[in-house]
Amino acid sequence: MTLNLCVLTPNRIVWDSEVKEIILSTNSGQIGVLPNHAPIATAVDIGILRIRLNDQWLTMALMGGFARIGNNKITILVNDAEKSSDIDPEEAQQTLEIAEANLTKAEGKRQLIEANLSLRRARTRVEAINMLAQ
Amino acid sequence: MAMAALRREGRRFATPLLSSPVRSSVISHSQEELPNGVRSISTQIVRNRMKSVKNIQKITKAMKMVAASKLRAVQTRTENSRGLWQPFTALLGDAPSVDVKKSVIVTISSDKGLCGGINSTSVKISRILHKLSSGPEKETKYVILGEKAKAQLIRDSKQDISLSITELQKNPLNYTQVSVLADDILKNVEFDALKIVFNNVPKLLLQWTFAPTCYAIMERESEAGGKLGELDSYEIEGAETKGEVLQNLAEFQFSCILFNGVLENACSEQGARMSAMDSSSRNAGDMLDRLTLTYNRTRQASITTELIEIISGASALEG
């Protein structure tokens, strides 16, 4: 029994195939989903999605959205998603540093919130690559 | 529109010839274009007309090719964005005809013209929707995206327009821009139900000549009167209450559908422009054929007239 996973962003379909297990990061922690999970609808935080296909783990960085799990079919709708194999380590590191610099420079509530969000996004991307290296 | 200008131009050339004496013209066909009493149209006029028609044909052909390439660029993105809103409809349900106090119609149109009738039809449907959902206690407002719909709706429904946004396509369309737009709409406009009107692209786009005809109307309700529907069968994970999740989900759905709507409209705009320019080029070609015939006839008639004059002059001298 396998799960059918669909990861969609407004720009393209990032993933659409069968997997064995996924670990999803929601705003109340990480949840693992195995086949025959109870139906669940949840919000997805900016974080890592881990996919297991046949004893091999694959990581993806998700930028927030929603997930629906039911009947062995998982649909994840996110603002943006990147497979860790598509992320360039140096570029991600640079983006992280720029985001950190922006956070210290940010003034005003709105800029602070935006800087925080971009920092989290950059951090997620770096983590995705690091996790792959493990 | 361009052809009418040509016709006017032709008449302007013809009127100075009115002063010549009346002579039965050998050319009977050309009389439909000129006032009576003209001796003959000179080949110069016809040649000028042919030149301008040919130039217009070149321009419309070029516009068609530009529209074709733009269409190809937008089409892949549109197809990719289609898959996003279908799970939403499956989950939250679609409620096209719900009775609410305040409804908002989001009309998506193009900024540039020469794209066939798509903008007029969008506006027509928006007006119909407006009439349907207006009543003694109900009010309907417009949110307009695009210059063309704004020009048409501002004439008679000025007080009903709450927000209008133009020049969407200055930068290539992307989701962040549209989500900011959706955010703006949600914050500034009060509503209970929302309808989005845009031009949809028919599913089988195999040939380049097509006419976009379907109009998709998506509706979504706010959290208060929200349809829970199938959501009930799912447990909500996470610390938020069901109401909050529903509202977040609905907002996300709105921005996704808006994004898809804007892309589809851009697609159909380019496609309609292609077919409009194509028929324009073909009309110009037809006109050119007719003008060529007229030109040849004029030329031969003038040669015949000259011959007759020479021969009659010669015979007068002899006799």
UniProtKB/TrEMBL annotation, chain A:
Residues 86-129 form the ATP synthase epsilon subunit C-terminal domain. It is found in: Membrane; Plastid, Chloroplast thylakoid membrane. It is a peripheral membrane protein. Residues 3-81 form the ATP synthase F1 complex delta/epsilon subunit N-terminal domain. It comes from the Eukaryota. Its main location: membrane. GO terms for cellular component: chloroplast thylakoid membrane; proton-transporting ATP synthase complex. One of its GO terms (molecular function) is proton-transporting ATP synthase activity, rotational mechanism. The keyword Protein biosynthesis does not apply. The keyword Cytoplasm does not apply. Keywords: ATP synthesis, CF(1), Chloroplast, Hydrogen ion transport, Ion transport, Membrane, Plastid, Thylakoid, Transport. Produces ATP from ADP in the presence of a proton gradient across the membrane. F-type ATPases have 2 components, CF(1) - the catalytic core - and CF(0) - the membrane proton channel. CF(1) has five subunits: alpha(3), beta(3), gamma(1), delta(1), epsilon(1). CF(0) has three main subunits: a, b and c. Belongs to the ATPase epsilon chain family. This is ATP synthase epsilon chain, chloroplastic. It comes from Stylosanthes hamata (Caribbean stylo).
UniProtKB/TrEMBL annotation, chain B:
Keywords: ATP synthesis, CF(1), Hydrogen ion transport, Ion transport, Membrane, Transport. The keyword ATP-binding does not apply. It is found in: Membrane. It holds the Pfam family ATP-synt. SUPFAM superfamilies: ATP synthase (F1-ATPase), gamma subunit. Its main location: membrane. It comes from the Eukaryota. It is a peripheral membrane protein. F-type ATPases have 2 components, CF(1) - the catalytic core - and CF(0) - the membrane proton channel. CF(1) and CF(0) have multiple subunits. Belongs to the ATPase gamma chain family. This is ATP synthase subunit gamma. It comes from Stylosanthes scabra. The lineage of its organism: Eukaryota, Viridiplantae, Streptophyta, Embryophyta, Tracheophyta.
